[in-house]
Amino acid sequence: RQGSELAGWAMGRWTYEGIDLNHNFADLNTALWDAEDNDLVPHEFPNHYIPIPEYYTFANATVAPETRAVIAWMQRYPFVLSANLHGGELVVTYPFDMSRTYWKAQELTPTPDDGVFRWLATVYATANLAMASGERRRCHYDDFARLGNIINGANWHTVAGSMNDFSYLHTNCFEITVELSCDKFPHASELPEEWENNRESLLLFMEQVHRGIKGVVRDSDTEQGIPNAIISVDGINHDVRT
Questions:
Q1: What residues are labeled active site?
Q2: What are the recorded Gene Ontology BP terms (predicted)?
Q3: What share of the chain is helix, strand, coil (3-state, %, to 5)?
C-alpha cells in the first residue's frame, strides 16, 4: 500500500524464513560446466535433465518449502515454456543467469539454445507497450532500450540458483524473466495501465509454444508412443525428451 515511493528495493524480496526465492533453486550450472571442462558431456554426464545434487535434498538444506513445491510441480508436469514476472525494471532477461567465469559479476553466458531464447525475449519486449514506447525513459542506470529491451541474465548481473537456469537444465522448459515495470509496487489505480502494457506480450509469448518441431515418437513395430525418448539436434549441445 505504501507504493514504491516509500518502499525500498528489498521490500518483499525475502520470505519469512529469510530466503530469496529467486536464488533458491539448485545450482546445476557448475556441475555441467565442470563436466564440460573435463570432456564428460554427454557420454558420462548429461547435457539435459541434470540431476539435483544430493546436498540440496537434505532436510536441513536452505531450501524454502515454496521452492520445493515448485520443483515438484515442474517434475510432475512437462512444461515447455515459462515466464517469471518481476518488477523494478523494464527488460526481458534470458538464460543463462549465472556467469560461467565464477568471479565475474557480469559475463555474456549464452545457452546452446541462445537463438530461441533471444527470440522469446524479443517477442515479449517488442509487444510490451512500455518497452516499445518511443518516449520510454531509463528506469535506473541501465539503458536497455538500446539493446532492444532484452539481455542475457548473466551479462546483466550473475545469479546462481535461478529458476530460469534450473528449468532449462533440469526439465524441458524454456523460461525467461520479465521485468514488468520500473515501478516495483504500482498503486491499485495504476494496475489497469500495467495490464494493458503487458497483455499482448503475454498472449504472444504463450503462442510461441506452437513454434518449432512437434510430433509423437513412436515404436516402428508397435506404433506405440515412446516416453522419455531423447531428441538431439545437430549443433545444439542440449537435448530434450518426449
A1: 179
A2: proteolysis
A3: 35, 15, 50
